[in-house]
Write a structure and sequence with these properties.
The chain contains ten helices and no strands. It is mostly helical. Helix 6 crosses helix 7. The longest helix has 34 residues. The radius of gyration is 20 Å and the shape is elongated.
């Protein structure tokens, strides 16, 4: 009851921090999608480049989030942005690259060759095949990568409170520093609930973007 009372007493702050958290993750993953999807498509043309790009993206993910935020501080301090919004967004953008690039690459690479040949047979150019055949078929897998990136980085962004980025992580950091379990638990539960809600919301979008033929095939499989 004490946790519920604390949450209700601080509902306005909780709401504003949640919006702040969503905005931070949304900008970071949105930029990662705008960069990661074209990269994933481009590397399907060269297997060696694909391996190198995916290897670099995998290395970035292995760096502990607190260490990556720490690296950002001296680098971005050169332009006066060592703490706060910018380093948090850049770090989460980097963490988002692997699932988005990998899923895009896998989805485009695994398009049925017969479909490519059929599109070529009716006179489609390479760009037309990509835009009208390959990308629509790849959308469900690409969206799955975006969902993975969003859910993963909702948790990562909570740590960004330690570099002054804000968001729901402020409840967790203050709960630890002030030895206040109410703030700590409310912050942790809020982050978890946000991840679940956003994941199901993106799943609904993914289903809407999935071509009907693919949906029927999945249902009958």
């Amino acid at each position: 009851m004490e946790l519920i009372r604390y949450a209700l007493d601080n509902l306005d702050l909780l709401t504003s921090r949640t919006i702040e958290h969503i905005a931070l993750v949304g900008v970071a993953v949105g930029l990662a999608t705008l960069t990661g999807v074209p990269i994933g498509i481009a590397i399907t043309k060269n297997e060696r480049v694909a391996r190198a790009v995916l290897y670099v993206a995998s290395i970035i993910v292995t760096v502990p989030s607190i260490a990556l935020f720490g690296i950002m501080i001296p680098v971005l301090s050169l332009i006066g942005q060592g703490i706060g919004y910018l380093p948090a967004v850049i770090a989460v953008l980097l963490y988002s690259q692997l699932p988005i690039i990998r899923n895009t690459y896998t989805a485009i690479h695994n398009v049925d060759p017969a479909l490519r040949e059929a599109a070529r047979g009716i006179g489609m150019s390479q760009n037309q095949r990509l835009r009208m055949v390959e990308i629509p078929l790849a959308v469900p897998v690409i969206m799955a990568g975006v969902r993975t990136a969003v859910v993963l980085n909702i948790g990562v962004m909570a740590i960004a409170a330690y570099i002054g980025a804000g968001g729901l992580g402020t409840f967790i950091s203050r709960g630890i520093s002030q030895s206040d379990p109410r703030q700590l638990i409310v912050g942790a539960v809020a982050v978890s609930l946000l991840a679940i809600i956003v994941d199901y919301s993106l799943l609904a979008i993914q289903k809407r973007l999935t071509p009907r033929g693919m949906e029927r095939a999945a249902e009958t499989a």
